[in-house]
Each structure stands twice: as C-alpha cells, then as structure tokens.
Amino acid sequence: MKDLNVEHEQADTVVDSLATRHGPLLGGSALWHVLGYASARAFSKAVERNTVPVATFHIPHRRGRFAMTHDVIAWLRATSAITCRKQNT
After folding, report:
1. Quick check: 21 pLDDT over 70?
2. Do the beta carbons of residue 27 and residue 58 sit within 8 Å?
3. pTM of this prediction?
4. Residue 26: what are its φ and ψ, rounded to 5°?
5. Cα–Cα dist 22/27, whole Å
6. Alpha-carbon gap, residue 39 to 37, rounded angstroms
C-alpha cells in the first residue's frame, strides 16, 4: 500500500507540473502525449471519432488542436482516481 501512495504522489507532481510547464493551453505533441496517444495520427483519428476525453478546439491562424490545461489535469486526476479505486478492490 505504501508503494501505491508513493506512486500517486509522484503522479500528482507530474500533473501539477503541466500547468507550470505549458501554461493555460496544451497543443501539438504535448497534448497527444499527455492524453496517452501513440502518435499524432492516433490523436487525429480519435478527434475524427469524437473519442478524445477532453474538449479540444482550433485557434485562428494556428495549426492543430488545443485543449485547456486545467481540463487535461482534471481528466488525469479523474483517471488516476478510477485506477486507484480499481487497484484497492
């Protein structure tokens, strides 16, 4: 159980650093990496299929899709909480 708590503390540190490192928006490879996609193409397919777990959007005169960093952090925390509950049962 102690190792599990250490892992979750480390995960919290990584999640908290997202806002510091990337600011209010995530885009490009940072976005698809954090969401767990293996490639930009896999992310594009998820967008086409409407299965991306957070809201993404275009910014005029910018390439690619973006997401609010706080939305990605909330999704990561929720995903982590679900995983923790499954491991504890």
Report:
1. yes
2. no
3. 0.78
4. -115, 135
5. 9
6. 6
